[in-house]
Amino acid sequence: MRHHHEGCERAHHHGHEHGCEHRHGRGGGGGRRQRFFGHGELRLVILEILTREASHGYELIKAIENLTLGNYTPSPGVIYPTLDFLQDQEFITIKEEDGGRKQITITELGQRWLEENREHLEHIHERVKARCVGFELRKNPQMKRALDNFKAVLDLRVNQGGISDAQLKQIIGVIDRAALEISQLD
């Protein structure tokens, strides 16, 4: 049996099939290339899903789609190599059922590795939530235009000019007032 830290080390060197985890986004935007999961992060997300119940490849895809509110659907070409890696590390077992479906279960080793990376997993969830909020906002064309305009103006004023501390304070005040006004809308 491999020692459980080996998964962490090998996770950084197993490049070709995991670096593409973020490239197959679809759902709503037709092949968006938003980076929902960084290198190796999909493994943690899959293991966490498996702690709730044993699953199958298709169900994992649906669970990840639900997690990202339909903004990211990993393709089988992303899911299955990731499952192969997790099986190589003995973090999961894959058992063939009647009818050819494969049942995927997390192992004790997998649960230990997940616990060691619990903090990283929480960061992943926070980031996914933030991305989903961004997607929801941008579904409205007027909102998208307003947000793009806001970013362009900020970029121009803050990044491209010799801005004084007093001006920066003014800009922060405007943003804070706008946030307060939005929060108080009926």
From TrEMBL:
Protein name per its UniProtKB record: Transcriptional Regulator
A Pfam family of this chain: PadR
Domain of life: Bacteria
Extent of Basic and acidic residues compositional bias: 1-10
Stretches the record annotates as Disordered: 1-33
Domain annotation Transcription regulator PadR N-terminal: ranges: 46-116
Biased segments, Basic residues type: 23-33
